[in-house]
Specification:
Elements lengths: L2 H12 L24 E5 L7 H10 L4 E5 L6 H4 L1 H14 L3
Parallel strand pairs: 1-2
């Protein structure tokens, strides 16, 4: 067993009793029922969760907003923190109160 295989097992060992891992669940059928403001922030260089995934979510979630962050990957909140934070603040301001 290599290190990549060991990490998920270690994580699962620390999960609370009764926790259900939904990471493999196909929840696409519920996306059209989301009725709250939804912001999707995607790094254009993300290979872990590619832009195509963001576009598919955006198409499936009514009224969602998709923002593509240029020059950043999966850790867009760290790699493009200024733009990421600006987009989140703008979104929250538009949907508060």
């Amino acid at each position: 067993m290599n290190d990549k295989q060991k990490k998920p097992q270690k994580l699962k060992a620390r999960l609370p009793r009764g926790f259900v891992d939904r990471s493999a669940a196909d929840l696409r059928a519920v996306l059209p029922r989301i009725d709250v403001p939804t912001l999707l922030l995607y790094g254009q260089l993300d290979v872990r969760s590619p832009v195509e995934v963001g576009r598919a979510l955006h198409d499936a979630i009514p009224g969602s907003r998709l923002v593509l962050l240029p020059g950043v990957g999966h850790f867009s909140s760290l790699e493009g923190a200024t733009r990421f934070n600006r987009e989140v603040r703008s979104f929250l301001a538009a949907h508060s109160g």
